[in-house]
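Thread: "does anyone have the structure for this chain?"

Original post by V.I.:
We have the sequence but no experimental structure in hand. Need at least a predicted one for the grant figures.
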Amino acid sequence: MSNKVIGPGGMAQFYSGAAVATRAERTKSEYATIPGMPARLCTVTLHDPGGIRHTVEVSAESLFEAAALGLAAMKREDWVDGPGRAAVLEVSVLEPVVKHTVSVQQVLRWLDGVTKSPNDLLKKEKLKALLR
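Reply from O.Q.:
Generated one for you, tokens below.
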């Protein structure tokens, strides 16, 4: 009997007992593609220095993607004047309900961070362009 594990870089690996076989040693039908996280509807909230609360809805596959899209939407609509890096964004996933809090600086660091795939790189480049 063979068991599947996810190895470095998200690569599916199979093993029997102590031996581990990588994708390169298997045929295409023997390894699985692990699907990405589905896009979910989220709200992104920012309190401006005047105490006004701004909230937008976005569809995103990750916490930081939702934060970047929400920040870009607020800037595009001139709701906020480029919040500082210390500004805090609240991100709530609507189904199932989950709430996260991240700073603008954390979002910018994530955008400048290492990517795992060409798709992630393209997504981050598009998000960076939205925030310019």
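V.I.: this helps a lot. Residues 63-76 form the longest helix (14 residues).
O.Q.: and The CA atoms of residues 44 and 73 lie 10 Å apart.
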